[in-house]
Amino acid sequence: MTTLHQQDKSKQEVEKTTGEKRKHRRADLEQQGLAVERWEAGRRAGSPFGQIVDISAGGVRIRTDQKNVRADNQICLRLELPDYAGISAFIDASGPNLEPKREWVGWLAVNRVQEVDGKQEVAGQLVDMDEMDRGMLGLYLSTQPMAA
Q1: What are phi and psi of 139, to 5 degrees?
Q2: How far is CA 71 from CA 31, 37, 68, 83, in A?
Q3: Domain-wise residue ranges, the chain
């Protein structure tokens, strides 16, 4: 039987050898061609922003043609993910019962922007996602292929 101290020490050793410090597991969704919209809440309308490269319950990486995105920006996004293996990515808790939903609208805090193959790759955190949606997204993504 191992103690919690030993387990914690073992986890720290793995992080040192692998360099992995992510809090959430990333899923590679690039092959699915899932579009992301830049959302304007006042008009309740979106405009095409790019495609998901990979996503986790904490953040997303998007490939876009837009050149005006900078690190430290915040962008309102609309993500729509198809049901997979009978699991919806998000939960609607606005009514008396919890209902599955496919879309989430919220803020992306841009951490990094870099050019890849003539396009911008935008990576950031999904900052205002409630814990119910974050948990469901994590469950949903656990059924998807892992990113490298």
Answers
A1: -65, -45
A2: 25, 18, 10, 31
A3: 26-141
- What is the CB neighbour count within 10 angstroms for residue 115? 9
Whether 35 and 60 have beta carbons less than 8 Å apart is answered as no
76 close to 107: Cβ distance less than 8 angstroms: yes
On whether the CB atoms of residues 102 and 83 are closer than 8 A, the answer is yes
| Eight-state DSSP code of residue 57 | S
DSSP state letters, 76-111: EEEEE---BTTB-SEEE-SSSS-EEESEEEEEEEEE
* CATH number at 26-141: 2.40.10.220
Question: Alpha carbon of 4 to those of 20, 24, 27, 146: distances in Å?
Answer: 20, 21, 29, 27
pLDDT, tens only, 40-87:
866 777 899 999 999 998 999 999 999 999 999 999 999 999 998 888
Place of tokens 């879309």: 103
Q: What are phi and psi of 44, to 5 degrees?
A: 50, 50
| Residues β-bridged to residue 87 | 84
